[in-house]
Amino acid sequence: MNGKASHARKAVQIMDGWSAAMKRHTEDNAGLQAAWSGSTWARAAEIVHAGYPHWGDERVARFKEMLRTAYLPAVRTQVPAYNGNWELAMTDAALSISVLLEDQDVFRESLERFRERVPAYFYLRRDGAHPLAPPRIGIDSPEKVAAYWFGQGAYADGMAQETCRNLMHVGYALAASAHIAETAWHQGVDLYREQGERLRAALEFHAKYQLGEEAPGWLCGGKLERTMGPDLEVALQHYAVRTGAELPYTRELVEKTRPAGTDDLFVAWETLTHGEAAPVV
Protein backbone atom coordinates (compact mmCIF):
# COMPACT_ATOMS: atom_id res chain seq x y z
CA MET A 1 0.00 0.00 0.00
CA ASN A 2 2.88 2.41 0.69
CA GLY A 3 5.05 1.35 -2.27
CA LYS A 4 7.94 0.02 -0.17
CA ALA A 5 9.32 -3.19 -1.66
CA SER A 6 10.78 -4.20 1.71
CA HIS A 7 7.30 -4.34 3.19
CA ALA A 8 6.04 -6.43 0.28
CA ARG A 9 8.94 -8.85 0.68
CA LYS A 10 8.19 -9.24 4.39
CA ALA A 11 4.48 -9.80 3.68
CA VAL A 12 5.37 -12.47 1.13
CA GLN A 13 7.77 -14.10 3.58
CA ILE A 14 5.02 -14.31 6.20
CA MET A 15 2.41 -15.64 3.76
CA ASP A 16 4.83 -18.17 2.30
CA GLY A 17 5.71 -19.40 5.78
CA TRP A 18 2.08 -19.99 6.69
CA SER A 19 1.10 -21.58 3.40
CA ALA A 20 3.95 -24.05 3.75
CA ALA A 21 2.74 -25.22 7.15
CA MET A 22 -0.96 -24.53 7.66
CA LYS A 23 -3.18 -27.53 6.90
CA ARG A 24 -6.45 -27.14 8.82
CA HIS A 25 -8.22 -25.47 11.74
CA THR A 26 -9.29 -27.52 14.75
CA GLU A 27 -10.97 -26.98 18.15
CA ASP A 28 -14.52 -25.86 18.82
CA ASN A 29 -13.95 -22.30 17.64
CA ALA A 30 -12.23 -23.27 14.39
CA GLY A 31 -14.76 -21.34 12.31
CA LEU A 32 -14.20 -18.13 14.23
CA GLN A 33 -10.41 -18.40 14.28
CA ALA A 34 -10.38 -19.13 10.56
CA ALA A 35 -12.73 -16.21 9.98
CA TRP A 36 -10.62 -13.64 11.82
CA SER A 37 -7.42 -14.66 10.07
CA GLY A 38 -8.85 -15.73 6.73
CA SER A 39 -10.49 -12.40 5.92
CA THR A 40 -7.21 -10.59 6.60
CA TRP A 41 -5.17 -13.14 4.63
CA ALA A 42 -7.37 -12.76 1.56
CA ARG A 43 -7.25 -8.97 1.54
CA ALA A 44 -3.49 -8.95 2.11
CA ALA A 45 -2.96 -11.42 -0.72
CA GLU A 46 -5.09 -9.31 -3.10
CA ILE A 47 -2.98 -6.23 -2.36
CA VAL A 48 0.38 -7.96 -2.64
CA HIS A 49 -0.51 -10.01 -5.70
CA ALA A 50 -1.72 -6.90 -7.52
CA GLY A 51 1.23 -4.69 -6.62
CA TYR A 52 4.26 -6.92 -6.18
CA PRO A 53 5.13 -8.99 -9.26
CA HIS A 54 7.95 -10.87 -7.51
CA TRP A 55 5.58 -13.11 -5.57
CA GLY A 56 6.00 -16.09 -7.89
CA ASP A 57 3.06 -17.95 -9.42
CA GLU A 58 3.91 -21.19 -7.63
CA ARG A 59 3.93 -19.54 -4.20
CA VAL A 60 0.75 -17.61 -4.96
CA ALA A 61 -0.92 -20.86 -5.97
CA ARG A 62 0.21 -22.53 -2.73
CA PHE A 63 -1.21 -19.66 -0.68
CA LYS A 64 -4.52 -19.87 -2.51
CA GLU A 65 -4.61 -23.61 -1.93
CA MET A 66 -4.11 -23.02 1.79
CA LEU A 67 -7.13 -20.71 1.84
CA ARG A 68 -9.21 -23.20 -0.14
CA THR A 69 -8.39 -26.26 1.96
CA ALA A 70 -7.53 -24.95 5.45
CA TYR A 71 -9.84 -21.95 5.68
CA LEU A 72 -12.89 -22.29 3.44
CA PRO A 73 -14.20 -25.52 5.01
CA ALA A 74 -14.10 -23.92 8.46
CA VAL A 75 -15.74 -20.62 7.50
CA ARG A 76 -18.44 -22.25 5.35
CA THR A 77 -19.69 -24.36 8.26
CA GLN A 78 -23.31 -23.59 9.15
CA VAL A 79 -23.64 -22.10 12.66
CA PRO A 80 -27.19 -20.67 12.86
CA ALA A 81 -27.55 -21.29 16.60
CA TYR A 82 -24.36 -19.41 17.49
CA ASN A 83 -24.13 -15.71 18.28
CA GLY A 84 -24.47 -13.80 15.03
CA ASN A 85 -21.03 -12.21 15.09
CA TRP A 86 -19.65 -15.68 14.37
CA GLU A 87 -21.50 -16.20 11.12
CA LEU A 88 -20.96 -12.63 9.94
CA ALA A 89 -17.20 -12.89 10.54
CA MET A 90 -17.14 -16.27 8.82
CA THR A 91 -19.05 -14.86 5.87
CA ASP A 92 -16.61 -11.95 5.68
CA ALA A 93 -13.76 -14.44 5.31
CA ALA A 94 -15.59 -16.70 2.87
CA LEU A 95 -16.54 -13.81 0.60
CA SER A 96 -13.03 -12.33 0.62
CA ILE A 97 -11.50 -15.70 -0.12
CA SER A 98 -13.99 -16.36 -2.91
CA VAL A 99 -12.92 -13.15 -4.66
CA LEU A 100 -9.23 -14.05 -4.44
CA LEU A 101 -9.94 -17.57 -5.71
CA GLU A 102 -12.46 -16.35 -8.30
CA ASP A 103 -14.92 -18.93 -6.94
CA GLN A 104 -18.39 -17.83 -8.02
CA ASP A 105 -20.20 -20.57 -6.11
CA VAL A 106 -18.70 -19.54 -2.76
CA PHE A 107 -19.29 -15.89 -3.66
CA ARG A 108 -23.01 -16.47 -4.23
CA GLU A 109 -23.28 -18.63 -1.13
CA SER A 110 -21.67 -15.88 0.96
CA LEU A 111 -24.08 -13.25 -0.35
CA GLU A 112 -27.02 -15.41 0.68
CA ARG A 113 -25.62 -16.00 4.17
CA PHE A 114 -25.27 -12.23 4.60
CA ARG A 115 -28.83 -11.68 3.40
CA GLU A 116 -30.12 -14.23 5.90
CA ARG A 117 -28.05 -13.29 8.94
CA VAL A 118 -28.12 -9.47 8.89
CA PRO A 119 -31.95 -9.29 9.25
CA ALA A 120 -31.76 -11.90 12.01
CA TYR A 121 -29.05 -9.99 13.88
CA PHE A 122 -30.16 -6.34 13.62
CA TYR A 123 -33.81 -5.58 14.45
CA LEU A 124 -36.24 -3.22 12.71
CA ARG A 125 -39.80 -2.61 13.91
CA ARG A 126 -41.16 -3.79 10.58
CA ASP A 127 -39.87 -7.28 11.46
CA GLY A 128 -42.80 -7.55 13.88
CA ALA A 129 -43.09 -7.70 17.64
CA HIS A 130 -40.04 -9.93 17.91
CA PRO A 131 -36.75 -10.20 15.99
CA LEU A 132 -36.41 -12.57 13.09
CA ALA A 133 -34.69 -15.83 13.91
CA PRO A 134 -31.89 -17.25 11.80
CA PRO A 135 -33.16 -20.10 9.62
CA ARG A 136 -32.83 -23.68 10.79
CA ILE A 137 -32.53 -22.73 14.47
CA GLY A 138 -35.93 -23.49 16.00
CA ILE A 139 -36.40 -20.21 17.89
CA ASP A 140 -40.17 -20.10 17.55
CA SER A 141 -41.51 -18.36 20.66
CA PRO A 142 -41.08 -14.96 22.37
CA GLU A 143 -39.41 -16.70 25.29
CA LYS A 144 -36.84 -18.40 23.07
CA VAL A 145 -36.17 -15.15 21.21
CA ALA A 146 -35.62 -13.29 24.48
CA ALA A 147 -33.19 -15.94 25.69
CA TYR A 148 -31.27 -15.84 22.40
CA TRP A 149 -31.13 -12.04 22.71
CA PHE A 150 -29.55 -12.29 26.19
CA GLY A 151 -32.75 -11.78 28.14
CA GLN A 152 -34.10 -8.82 26.18
CA GLY A 153 -37.86 -8.77 25.68
CA ALA A 154 -38.41 -5.32 24.13
CA TYR A 155 -36.82 -4.20 20.89
CA ALA A 156 -36.03 -0.99 19.04
CA ASP A 157 -34.76 -0.13 15.56
CA GLY A 158 -31.09 -1.00 15.25
CA MET A 159 -30.81 -3.20 18.32
CA ALA A 160 -28.64 -6.29 17.85
CA GLN A 161 -28.85 -9.86 19.03
CA GLU A 162 -25.76 -9.28 21.23
CA THR A 163 -26.50 -5.75 22.48
CA CYS A 164 -27.24 -7.07 25.97
CA ARG A 165 -24.10 -9.20 25.89
CA ASN A 166 -21.70 -6.33 25.19
CA LEU A 167 -21.05 -3.73 22.51
CA MET A 168 -17.69 -5.30 21.67
CA HIS A 169 -19.31 -8.24 19.91
CA VAL A 170 -21.86 -5.99 18.23
CA GLY A 171 -18.89 -3.98 16.93
CA TYR A 172 -17.40 -7.16 15.47
CA ALA A 173 -20.70 -7.84 13.71
CA LEU A 174 -20.95 -4.28 12.36
CA ALA A 175 -17.37 -4.41 11.10
CA ALA A 176 -17.88 -7.80 9.45
CA SER A 177 -21.13 -6.62 7.84
CA ALA A 178 -19.37 -3.55 6.43
CA HIS A 179 -16.44 -5.65 5.17
CA ILE A 180 -18.84 -8.00 3.39
CA ALA A 181 -20.75 -5.12 1.84
CA GLU A 182 -17.54 -3.36 0.81
CA THR A 183 -16.13 -6.48 -0.85
CA ALA A 184 -19.42 -7.06 -2.66
CA TRP A 185 -19.53 -3.38 -3.70
CA HIS A 186 -16.22 -3.75 -5.51
CA GLN A 187 -17.66 -6.79 -7.28
CA GLY A 188 -20.74 -4.90 -8.46
CA VAL A 189 -23.23 -6.08 -5.80
CA ASP A 190 -24.76 -3.37 -3.58
CA LEU A 191 -25.43 -5.06 -0.25
CA TYR A 192 -25.07 -1.68 1.41
CA ARG A 193 -28.27 -0.57 -0.32
CA GLU A 194 -30.10 -3.86 0.25
CA GLN A 195 -29.59 -3.69 4.02
CA GLY A 196 -29.13 0.06 4.30
CA GLU A 197 -32.04 0.90 6.59
CA ARG A 198 -31.10 -1.88 8.99
CA LEU A 199 -27.36 -1.18 9.05
CA ARG A 200 -27.74 2.59 9.42
CA ALA A 201 -30.14 2.08 12.33
CA ALA A 202 -27.70 -0.33 13.99
CA LEU A 203 -24.77 2.05 13.55
CA GLU A 204 -26.62 4.96 15.15
CA PHE A 205 -28.20 2.90 17.93
CA HIS A 206 -24.93 1.46 19.16
CA ALA A 207 -22.73 4.51 18.54
CA LYS A 208 -25.10 6.56 20.71
CA TYR A 209 -24.71 4.24 23.67
CA GLN A 210 -20.99 3.71 23.16
CA LEU A 211 -20.64 7.50 23.40
CA GLY A 212 -22.25 7.38 26.84
CA GLU A 213 -26.00 7.87 26.39
CA GLU A 214 -27.77 6.54 29.48
CA ALA A 215 -29.54 3.25 28.75
CA PRO A 216 -33.27 3.21 29.58
CA GLY A 217 -34.53 0.60 31.97
CA TRP A 218 -36.19 -1.48 29.23
CA LEU A 219 -32.85 -1.90 27.45
CA CYS A 220 -30.73 -4.65 28.99
CA GLY A 221 -32.02 -3.68 32.44
CA GLY A 222 -30.44 -0.25 32.01
CA LYS A 223 -26.91 -1.71 31.93
CA LEU A 224 -24.69 -1.84 28.86
CA GLU A 225 -21.11 -3.00 28.51
CA ARG A 226 -19.66 -0.20 26.37
CA THR A 227 -16.69 -1.99 24.84
CA MET A 228 -16.97 -1.31 21.11
CA GLY A 229 -13.66 -1.14 19.27
CA PRO A 230 -12.57 0.75 16.11
CA ASP A 231 -15.25 -0.93 14.03
CA LEU A 232 -17.23 1.74 12.14
CA GLU A 233 -14.89 3.44 9.64
CA VAL A 234 -15.82 1.33 6.60
CA ALA A 235 -19.57 1.69 7.12
CA LEU A 236 -19.28 5.43 7.81
CA GLN A 237 -17.22 5.96 4.67
CA HIS A 238 -19.85 4.34 2.50
CA TYR A 239 -23.00 5.76 3.99
CA ALA A 240 -21.79 9.25 4.90
CA VAL A 241 -19.27 9.91 2.12
CA ARG A 242 -20.48 7.88 -0.85
CA THR A 243 -24.21 8.37 -0.26
CA GLY A 244 -24.37 11.48 1.93
CA ALA A 245 -26.41 9.91 4.74
CA GLU A 246 -26.58 11.73 8.07
CA LEU A 247 -25.14 9.52 10.81
CA PRO A 248 -24.34 11.99 13.61
CA TYR A 249 -23.66 9.51 16.42
CA THR A 250 -21.58 7.25 14.19
CA ARG A 251 -19.53 10.17 12.93
CA GLU A 252 -18.98 11.54 16.42
CA LEU A 253 -17.78 8.17 17.70
CA VAL A 254 -15.49 7.56 14.73
CA GLU A 255 -13.97 11.04 14.91
CA LYS A 256 -13.50 10.70 18.67
CA THR A 257 -11.52 7.47 18.28
CA ARG A 258 -9.44 8.33 15.20
CA PRO A 259 -6.97 7.24 14.10
CA ALA A 260 -8.48 3.79 14.39
CA GLY A 261 -6.07 1.10 15.46
CA THR A 262 -6.71 -2.63 15.57
CA ASP A 263 -8.98 -4.88 17.57
CA ASP A 264 -6.23 -7.56 17.37
CA LEU A 265 -8.62 -9.81 15.41
CA PHE A 266 -9.73 -8.74 11.94
CA VAL A 267 -10.21 -4.96 12.07
CA ALA A 268 -7.03 -3.00 11.50
CA TRP A 269 -6.11 0.64 10.78
CA GLU A 270 -9.26 1.45 8.87
CA THR A 271 -8.86 5.22 9.20
CA LEU A 272 -5.89 4.69 6.88
CA THR A 273 -7.93 2.76 4.32
CA HIS A 274 -11.38 4.29 4.71
CA GLY A 275 -11.11 7.64 6.46
CA GLU A 276 -12.60 10.45 4.37
CA ALA A 277 -9.21 11.98 3.56
CA ALA A 278 -7.65 8.64 2.66
CA PRO A 279 -7.83 6.70 -0.61
CA VAL A 280 -10.22 3.75 -0.51
CA VAL A 281 -8.48 0.55 -1.60
Commentary on this structure:
- The structure is a single chain.
- With 281 residues, the protein is mostly helical.
- The chain has helices spanning 5-21, 30-51, 57-75, 84-101, 104-121, 142-148, 167-186, 191-194, 196-210, 233-242, 248-257, 270-274.
- Helix 2 packs antiparallel against helix 3 (57-75), helix 2 (30-51) packs parallel to helix 4 (84-101) and helix 3 runs antiparallel to helix 4 (84-101).
- The longest helix has 22 residues, at 30-51.
- It is globular and about 60 Å long.
- The mean pLDDT is 95.
Brief synopsis:
The protein is mainly alpha-helical and 281 residues long. It is built from 12 helices and no strands.
What is the C-alpha radius of gyration, as a whole number of Å? 19 Å
Mean pLDDT: 95
Element order: H for helix, E for strand: HHHHHHHHHHHH
Query: Helical stretch count?
Result: 12
N→C terminal distance: 9 Å
> Which descriptor suits the 3D outline?
globular
Q: Structural class, from helix and strand content?
A: mainly alpha
Q: What assembly state would you assign to the polypeptide chains in this entry?
A: single chain
Biggest sheet record: none
Percent strand equals under 5%
Low-confidence segments, given as residue ranges, are none
The percent of residues in helical segments reads: 55-70%
How many beta-strand elements?
0
